[in-house]
Amino acid sequence: MSGLLEIVLVDAQGLPKSDLIGKMDPYVTIQYKNQNVRSSVAKGQGTNPVWDDKLTLWVEYPEPDGQYNVVFKIFDRDTFSRDDLIGETTISVKDLVELGAKKGKTNVEPRKYSVFESKKNKPVQGRAGDIHVGLTFTPKDMLNRGHVKD
């Protein structure tokens, strides 16, 4: 069975400052298996950006490898240099997908998840603020029947 994972990316709070001059322009990349989606850029919003973006990914159930981790990476967009990786978090959607596969559309209201600093090619470092995310899983057969309601 497959289904649609809808991610509501609300905001982030308390991100570490990465620019010496001016405000940060944060955005988020979201990865699940071989799928990648990207949020809008919160231009000039600094360490407490608001996105209010809805992004979607396809999820299989059961997954052959048993892994249901969605990786969120927060970057600061830079004009004249490489974008800076601010931090990341991983959210397991296994319970959400299992419940949705059995009972139909299932959601987790937006809540805060801790973000951790990360440096390229190094393990995760200290805490780097919070990200506010909501999740909804809708089985494909419900999408096909038109039973999806907000």
UniProtKB/TrEMBL annotation:
UniProt domain C2: residue ranges: 1-109
Domain of life: Eukaryota
The keyword Cell division appears for this protein: no
Keywords noted in UniProt: Calcium, Metal-binding
GO terms for MF: metal ion binding
UniProt keyword annotation of 4Fe-4S present: no
Family annotation (InterPro entries): C2_dom (IPR000008), C2_domain_sf (IPR035892)
Protein name: C2 domain-containing protein
Species annotation: Papaver atlanticum
Lineage, top ranks: Eukaryota, Viridiplantae, Streptophyta, Embryophyta, Tracheophyta
